[in-house]
Amino acid sequence: MITLARWAVLIALLGVWELAAAVGLIDAFVFSSPSRIFVALKDLTASGELFLHAGVTLAETLIGFIISTAIGTALALLLWWNGRVKQIAEPYLVVLNSLPKIALGPVIIIWFGSGMRAIVVMTVLIGVVVSLMTMLSGFEQTDKGKLLLMRSLGASRMNVLLKLVIPSSLPTFVNMLKINVGLSWIGSIMGEYLVSRAGIGYLIVYGGQVFKMDLVFASTLVLCLLATGMYALVSLLERIVRRH
Amino acid sequence: MKNLLTIENAGHVYHTPSGETQAVKGLSFSVGEGEFVAVIGPSGCGKTTVLSLIAGLMRPTSGRVTVCGKDAYGGGYRLGYMLQRDELFPWRTTYRNVLLPLELKRHKSHKNKAYALELLKKYGLEDFKKSYPDELSGGMRQRVALIRTLASKPQLLLLDEPFSALDYQTRLLVTGDVCSIIRREKKTAILVTHDISEAVSVADRIIVLTKRPAALKSDYSLGFDPDLSPLSRRERPEFGRWFELLWRELNDENG
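The joint structure predicted for all components is written out below.
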């Protein structure tokens, strides 16, 4: 029933959009229309451009996602392990967390060039602080009673980490992955807006500049599909984890 | 009877930015091997501190706490600590939960594993050894927690209100269950509780603490037949008398 209603909403929206464009209620040149988007998609696929650009963006996003997850988690472990280091790092984290990373765009371009590397760096920057903070608070929320139990059993800090803190933070880790998927897409698209010669973000900016709204919408649609797909993969992982 | 635990004139002071708090002062008592002692006291009397001192998690700021002649602080003996909740790890099966203490102490020999299995079998949990904690009832979980505690053959069992998270009905059943296991395994146990009737129904001896700073107020040997279950103790005439006496002691204003 719900599924049916969801499809009905989509079809109704597309129908109204298409109709409005057809009867001239809206200017199809500015607002595009589902059929024009479909044609644009077909052209993109036929010329092979779609796979090139989607591939570039997907690669940037995945690499950024993996690197920021790895670095964020590793740093969170370090800060959990060493309270002194955590205290020293705290103000820096607060500043880094509130800083809009996009402001570092020019610096990144000058340091890392105008290619894929700069975009991956941007993606990592956007994801890493949030990953770190999420994981650290996850580690620190380890059940007090279980920590006391481990202490009463004479467990070493390494054992507390391996046998209690890490396994009990697994749900937090999956949540962090979910957040980081979204952030990685923001990072790669933002990066491509700033500087790029290929990618979905590049297509969107290019389409906007030459006023090809069909291209802009088609690219956005591809982006939606890719992002949803990646999120679905993480959700699948979550289901596996929840089953112990 | 040999003394297993000896507390001699122990004191503990907490240092906080706003000053010092004396939680325990001049506390002395001892527990013999095989004894089941309940420690009760008015709320906020420093029971947790006393427990931590016995468990060796904190060093007394004065006096001594020794188990088998060695300082309790710093893991000098095999301790079995049962907390208010069962604290089973939800990602481990019953069997792997029970093995946790052995794993931590690298005592996972075949002999020790066999002993853990034997305990599970003896106390009716063998069929659930591959179950996860969320598949067990509250009472069963508490029993698993006890077996986890026993699997490392502790010299002393510390029970910190281990049944307080259970509903009353389950609590009575589990108390009986756990006590009979402790008695059958001939363990020395110290139960800390604020529940007078629980203390009277399970212990051989009851130690009453004063208000903060905690010190020894009185020490009673109950003299029940040790084979009497906690539930049948509750039906004895002495039960009511002990309850009343202890209730008065706890609520004594001169503390």
